[in-house]
Amino acid sequence: MANVRGCDLPDELLYDVPNNMWYRDEADGTVLAGMTSVALALAGQLVAVTPRKAGRAVQAGKSCATIESGKWVGPAKIAFDGEVTAVNDALVASPKIANADPYQAGWLIRVKPADWAAAKQALTPGTQVAAPYDAKMTADGFAGCTAAAA
Known about the structure:
Layout: E1 2-4, E2 7-9, E3 14-16, E4 21-25, E5 31-35, H1 37-43, E6 46-51, E7 57-58, E8 63-69, E9 73-77, E10 82-87, H2 89-93, H3 96-100, E11 109-113, H4 116-121, E12 124-125, H5 130-140, H6 145-149
Antiparallel strand pairs: 1-2, 3-4, 3-12, 4-5, 5-11, 6-8, 7-10, 8-9, 10-11
């Protein structure tokens, strides 16, 4: 697992570094999507998560959920076109789950991608994500997850 400035980034995931999102291939052809530990450190403690409903289409670069914390309200942007097949109802009921466990219990939505093979080409594998994230943190003036928690 990569750890960049105190932010964990699991190797088995794919990342949309500019939008601080992660993706995990599921055996059924769907993809789980969630916010990275970087996104959550930037946002702070989540107070509300409003994902697109199951059955709804999502478009690359557009919001798949609205995220609200004590200091930020904004979109979680998906990296590819697809259809939402499930939402994490536990996360909607208790948004703090994402802050505590962003890569397991804190997933946002499950999506059936329109063209996953093509979408994967634009994502960064977890084994190669440390350098792009370090560069992004430098460009954004972000000290890291441990500094944000302090």
